[in-house]
Amino acid sequence: MNLKRLFTDDSAVSPVIGVILMVAITVILAAVIGSFVLNLGGSIQQSAPQASFGFEYDEATNNTTITHETGDSITASRLNVTSTASLDVVNSTTFEDVGGEISAGDTAQYNKTTDWAGETLRVVWTSENGETSATLSQSTAPNES
Known about the structure:
This protein has three helices and eight strands.
């Protein structure tokens, strides 16, 4: 056995590296094609905005004011206010009424025919294609004294 020849003979290295590279390229290509076919990358652009809303309850007038306090500007048509009970509001100014982009300082007022006691209000954002939604803020109205 010639040890010098054993350490200098590298005739099998090139085919092994070639096979490894071909397998790696095939796996990467399959992952990219699979993500397009299954639309896994489609919802990445529709992540929920980061925003904080404040809630003020006026028990005397059954008026609730919701204020965008901090965070991203949000298209008004993407915001919805929901309640644990029926949201039978009258003479209200919703975020859609404000229109355009809702940013820090913008408010919406909800006047209800009955009191808000114990109800949970949520500000919900819905994506442009309607596939995803997220609760941005929520608050439970205080019980009457």
